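[Structure tokenization] protein backbone as discrete codes
[Encoding] learned vocabulary of local backbone shapes
[Protein] chain in single-letter code, fold in tokens
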Amino acid sequence: MTSVEEDGVDGARRSAEGAARARAEQALREVIRGILPALPAEEITGEKHLRDLGADSVDRVEIILGVTRRLGIDEPMSNFSAVPDIDGLIEHLSRGRSA
């Protein structure tokens, strides 16, 4: 593969990864707002954990289940236990979804 072809493949992959991340972020924000309607949208920032947003343990499960359903992801809840914050959750949700 030539350098130009590699650049094209890399660009397409980055574009697909960006689109998967954008879909995951939008779905997550919509689900959070549906479950925590009193939460101002500007409070949903990348470095916060769901519990920082006021989500109790049941809310967190509902958020994860809601967003995975919306994105068509079939993954055990235990895979989400080590996700540190909203950015990590978006990354986790979008990983492998751009292929």
Notes: The chain has a mean pLDDT of 88. The helical segments are 3-35, 57-71, 86-94.
